[in-house]
Amino acid sequence: MMESRASIRSMNPSLDNGHRVDIPLSPRDDLASLLKAAGDSRRLEVLRALRANAFGALELADIFAMRQNTMSHHLKLLTRAGLVSYRREGTHIFYRRTAPDDALRREILAAVDALPLSAPVSARIRVIETARAATSREFFRANADKFRAQQDLIAGYPQYGEAVIATLDRLPSNSTCTVLEVGPGEGELLADLHPRFARVVALDNAAEMLERSRQFAAAQGLAGIDFVHGDTTDAVTQGLSSAVITLNMVLHHTPTPAAVIADLAQVLEPGGVLLVTELCRHDQDWARPACGDLWLGFEPDDLTRWAADAGLADGATEYLPLKNGFRVQLRQFIRPATGAVPATPGNTA
Known about the structure:
This protein is of the alpha/beta class. The chain contains 15 helices and eleven strands. It starts with a strand and ends in a 15-residue tail after the last strand.
């Protein structure tokens, strides 16, 4: 039998920092590794838990109520089989599902996603996600008065605002449309959205930040903006609908980025555009305590995959100039003019 080279990850993150290394595997060994990884009910549940979020090994051990070394063994087998990958973010290592390019692995993951998680596992996932969200909200509560200075350390509004407006101006006429800005921050973009759209809605789950954007709008004489305190799940349950949604430098503060995009896909009107401005992946771990970041940016493929899972088509992409070692991606995602989008991907039954 001819031997092939399957690209897999080293099992020791401290040695290769999560980069791919080529290890020769025969097709027979590759298949045996895959079947072994998928032939355990607990590992299948781990794959299901990783459907819409990334977790550390200790978090996964807590979720499944098992010793960390036992969970590490499961993750080693799943990684070797090409079903899971890991990424080092500063001093943190997070595991997530891969996006396989072969039919068998895709079919395995599709079958896994048809299975419900047990109630205890779902509950423990919610505890972790709630804790992440609380950490983010507490940061903005405590730092609302100095948020702009901290954000400018990475990429403040002046670094991406003009590009966002130029993109909006290339879209079809907005004069009769509603625009939803998620996470308006200090409110600077509201001044540019206000004259371009019939209705402007600002949504933020941090009351302190929403108040700062409200104060900015009042100082600028921007009447008629609707300020909504809540998250994207609230936007769905409240029946918000918008032709254009802007999401600027928000996802790296959210505990479940994929779920946020899925929520917004449901809020987006058919034919509408979700405009995402976000950091590319970086390794500057100081951004966590200094700026309240939960994630150190994202690979462009991450956003593309999450949008596709939410039923959105990939649109134009622009990369903005590098600043302070950070690169910004400006992405457009479009909801098809016909057809429903999938329900929000989650980790519950």
